[in-house]
Amino acid sequence: MKEKLKVYIVAFLLALLGLSMALYKHFALGFPLLPYEKVAVWTVESKVEFEASGAPVVVSLALPDSQQGIEIVNENFTTSGYGFAEIDQPDGSRRAQWTRREADGKQLLYYRLQVYPAALDQAAEVIAPSSPVPPEFDSAKAASASALLDEIHAVSANTETFATQLLRALTVEPLSQNAAFLLGENRDPAFIAETALQLLSLAGIPNRIVRGLVLEDDRRRQKLVDLIEVWDEDEWKIFDPRSARAGKPADFMIWRRGDVSLLDVEGGRESQVTFSILRSYRPARDIALANAVDNRAALIDFSIYSLPIEEQNAFKTILLVPIGTLVVAIFRILIGLRTSGTFMPILIALAFIQTTLLWGLLLFLIVVGAGLFIRFHLARLNLLLIGRISSVVTVVIGLMSGISILSYKLGLNQILTITFFPMIILSWTIERMSILWEEEGPKEVAIQGGGSLLVATAAYLLMSNALVAHLTFNFPELLLVQLALIMLIGQYTGYRLTELKRFTPLVENR
Predict the structure, then answer these.
(1) Cβ–Cβ contacts within 10 Å for residue 105, how many?
(2) Engineering a disulfide at 417: which of 46, 77, 355, 424 sits with its beta carbon 3.0 to 4.6 angstroms away?
């Protein structure tokens, strides 16, 4: 009983460890559990337009920074005729700078990048802001602003609800007398955001402007959308002035924060920047792998993915073998099916993956049948075991060569895959079956041969399944779960399914 308990404990720990690592890769690193899953990849292109005046030109464009939930890749800058440099600002932000000694007429500059959802986020250092500088209002606006803040303070409980109620007061009709006076006739979201920031500063709450893009497919000549961020205790919280809701809108990419200018142009006039957005799809597994490699995730850095591609392709097949061993354990221990050799069905199943099931079964029967016929004739020569096996190997190779040549001449290309069968295993199978025929008779040969093909077929159906192949290669940690299952099956000593037939008369006589 103690030994069984040890098996249960070890199996439980192995399964727990394997499942934990697999779930971490899925939820933290973003590896998909299903094959063929795709992730939306957004291509964002900013176009800078201005009219050059024939003087030296310096164009500076604010660039987006890394942010939670979004990975920025494949940045491209169009610099035809211009010098280019990427400049890091003292506050940690980035700017693109195009320069030219002389330019005249309409000018176009482009900056393009791709973004996709990032499952693994690096926590950015948050620095508490200083107290805001109160804005300067005339006496009438100052009185209205103070009265409006008093009204909002009475119906709010904390900083978050204060910001929410403030935005509602500036957006939800009908507006109060104080809110209407502060806004005047301007109901533009950008002006509402600016007014909200001024009122927050007047209330002594740190705040800043946030400008970004809503990622929507097939959008052209888009402008940045204004949001506001409010400092609440130890973190920045985003609010949408259009809906007065807290939280970043779905598929929103922050382009810049604070009062930093988006575009500066020296030597030109009538400048503007617009954005175009296009959505495409890429395999989720490739996105997750690239993101994990960039972030140097330890589970990926020391894994199969660090091997050369050739070795990775080999492991795609090798990692399927434990699936076959699990099938063999189930059929032999729980069901009680007899096979010719313990793990020969796994090798046959691997061959079936290359030949397909029907052609594989046909070729196996042809080669083994012909090999048995020739083996019986070799038995009359009274050769030693090594001599018989060597002869059978030679015969098997000759049979496979002949079948391949004949199938090629007949145009049956599928039969050419016979070369994927393991020749030595086939030769040893023929030798064992011939001895079994002599000792136990053809019935036992049919039982073990049929059992081997049945187990090989079941293993092939699992090993060739797209979901199984995806999980075994991308989540090799599940090998620990398979090992736990095999250990639990391996300690089973009860009746097998095929043995229940022996007790059928007892049941019928009750």
Answers:
(1) 8
(2) 355
